[in-house]
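TL;DR need structure tokens for one chain.
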Amino acid sequence: MTPPTTRTWARRGHTPLIRVRGRSQRRFSIAALACYKPGERSRLIYRPKRHADHKRGGRRSFTWTDYRDLLVAAHQQLGAPIVLVWDNLNVHKDARLRAFIDAHDWITCYFLPAYAPDLNPVEGLWSLLRRSSQANTAFTDPDHLMRTLRHGLRQIQYRSNLIDGCLTETGLTLTTSHQQAQ
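>> reply
TL;DR here they are.
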């Protein structure tokens, strides 16, 4: 509920202030896949999740089944095999998720080096989202925050050049099997 702050303009000596009532203990997570295929428009597939009250012992992040469901939905939406390049989040390495991936021939999984956020294009998408949709916004309630996040993600979805730019920023490139053979 606490937004990132960015620069703003005001008359000299009159710094704009926004008072926020209090911090919410509610928690949201969003998992996203940046999808690239040579010759096609890049796509963003995401799933938000609102967590139950974590003070009562509820989980504060995505479970392996949430990631499994995201992969199944992406496979259905894309209608093609998936080459998954993941960071080293502990849930991504969960034995149950690994067993699911190994059991399906439409998923090939690779892991990024131990700490390499600069190689993950989704990190660039989160940065865009924070700077565009969330910056300098005092959210009135959790629903306001979720509506804003969904709107910002839809804006990114419709602008494939932003998704392409996040891949370009990593220095990684797309290659086809034909190009690799040469």
